Structures are given as C-alpha cells and as structure tokens.
Amino acid sequence: MKYAGLATQFLLAIGIAVYAGLKLDEWLKLKTPLAVWILPLLIITGMIIKIVKDTAPKK
Asked: Is there a contact between 55 and 36 (Cβ–Cβ < 8 Å)?
C-alpha cells in the first residue's frame, strides 16, 4: 500500500502524456507520431528519477 499512490500517479502521468502527444501531433500535423513517443519517454524518465530519490536510504 505504501507505493499504491505512486503507481497511480505514474499511470495517470503516462496517460496524460500520451493524450497530450496525440493532440500535439494532430495540431502540428505531423505524419510521424513524434510527440506521442517523446512526451511519455520524458515522463517515464522523470518518474524513475523521482522514484529513485524517494526510495533511496536517507542519510
């Protein structure tokens, strides 16, 4: 239960990033789904860094 909120936040952030990427690609009229790949990748990278910092042993 300790990390249930973190998992929910992770999934919600990825979902929002994919939706925003779809809308951005549509708005920019890109044939290649560039934003759909880049935005979730940035979110995943940021969330992994946050998880590592939050779960690291405190000094």
From this structure: no
DSSP string, 1-59: -TTHHHHHHHHHHHHHHHHHHHHHHHHHT-SS-HHHHHHHHHHHHHHHHHHHHHHSPP-
Name every residue whose Cβ is closer than 8 Å to that of residue 6 and which is 6 or more positions away in sequence: 51, 54
pLDDT in tens, 5-56: 878 888 999 999 999 999 999 999 988 889 999 999 999 999 889 888 878 8
Angstrom distance (rounded) from CA 38 to CA 13: 13
AA identity, residue 53 = K
